[in-house]
């Protein structure tokens, strides 16, 4: 019998470092990264029906309607690579209804990670964030400046990363996040995200290692 691949949910306020940590997790564990923010931004930039529906909500820092996001996630989760490599859900579920949608089709993670970062730091991280459209790499003008002029010249700022919009995204997060926690209270791991990227990753890495070790120990015991 094949070992079941890892299933991970990562949550946290805007700019708590989800995307940054996900890149490191994927590099080490090979999980399929499913970021609803990335999926929605790509629908918006391709001008699809979903993108047209989502744009206004995103621009206002509000949640896109549950059904739109849930359909997107469930369809991605049903692809064969997910079954083979496992999954890393980033920014979903973000409401009680979204969590219940996954419960109703028996999709549960091995672990639910929440990155905790103080508000004033979140705002600074968002406003300074830059993205490389070619590599997908996430930069920050002060914390993680680009390596050279060539990268620097192509960096983009997300349209929802202005001071005002970040405040409204943060408000939305606070209104919804508590409703998601009870579904995963037995799998909950809150991590201090206000430390160096590598330090945060080491903590996540040990949690994931432990899950893998427990799984193989269980298998041996059978
Ligand atoms: P989404 O794209 O998910 O945005 P978000 O939750 O606001 O999170 P971010 O992508 O802003 O931040 P992050 O935590 O990934 O941080 P990052 O690693 O980039 O969602 C966007 C919108 O889509 C939502 O507002 C909503 O409208 C819609 N949406 C998405 N999912 C939805 C859902 N499920 N339901 C309904 N609507 C949905 O880091 C941020 C910055 O900090 C970077 O510059 C980085 O370099 C820096 N940084 C990272 N870690 C550190 C560190 N340890 N120390 C110092 N700097 C750091």
How would you describe this structure to a colleague?
The protein has one domain (7-117, 165-214): 3-Layer(aba) Sandwich (Rossmann fold), CATH 3.40.50. It has helices at 18-29, 36-46, 49-59, 66-77, 80-85, 96-104, 119-127, 149-154, 163-180, 197-221, and strands at residues 7-12, 32-35, 87-90, 111-116, 129-131, 138-140, 188-192. Helix 1 packs across helix 10 and helix 2 crosses helix 3. The chain is an alpha/beta fold and 222 residues long. It is globular and about 55 Å long.
How far do the termini sit from each other? 12 Å
Which structural class do you get from the secondary structure elements?
alpha/beta
Gross CATH architecture: 3-Layer(aba) Sandwich
Compute the number of strand runs.
7
Mean pLDDT: 95
Secondary structure elements and pairings:
Elements: E1 7-12, H1 18-29, E2 32-35, H2 36-46, H3 49-59, H4 66-77, H5 80-85, E3 87-90, H6 96-104, E4 111-116, H7 119-127, E5 129-131, E6 138-140, H8 149-154, H9 163-180, E7 188-192, H10 197-221
Parallel strand pairs: 1-3, 1-4, 2-3, 4-7
Antiparallel strand pairs: 5-6
Helix pairs in contact: 1-10, 2-3, 4-6, 7-9
The structure holds BIS(adenosine)-5'-pentaphosphate.
Describe the structure concisely.
The chain has ten helices and seven strands. The protein has 222 residues and is an alpha/beta fold.
């Amino acid at each position: 019998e094949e070992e079941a691949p890892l299933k991970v949910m990562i949550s946290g306020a805007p700019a708590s470092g989800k995307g940054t940590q996900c890149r490191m997790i994927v590099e080490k564990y090979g999980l399929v990264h499913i970021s609803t923010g990335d999926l929605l931004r790509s629908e918006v930039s391709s001008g699809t029906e979903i993108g047209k529906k989502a744009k206004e909500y995103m621009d206002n820092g509000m949640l896109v309607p549950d059904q739109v996001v849930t359909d997107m996630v469930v369809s991605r989760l049903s692809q064969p690579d997910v079954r083979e490599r496992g999954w890393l859900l980033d920014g979903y579920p973000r409401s009680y209804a979204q969590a219940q949608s996954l419960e109703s089709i028996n999709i549960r993670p091995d672990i639910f990670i929440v990155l905790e970062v103080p508000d004033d730091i979140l705002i600074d991280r968002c406003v300074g964030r830059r993205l490389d459209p070619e590599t997908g790499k996430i930069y920050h003008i002060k914390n993680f400046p680009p390596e050279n002029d060539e990268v620097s010249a192509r960096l983009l700022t997300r349209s929802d990363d202005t001071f005002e919009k970040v405040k409204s995204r943060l408000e939305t997060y606070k209104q919804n996040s508590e409703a998601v926690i009870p579904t995963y209270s037995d799998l909950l791991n809150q991590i201090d995200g206000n430390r160096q990227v590598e330090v945060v990753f080491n903590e996540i890495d040990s949690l994931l290692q432990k899950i893998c070790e427990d799984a193989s120990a269980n298998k041996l015991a059978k």
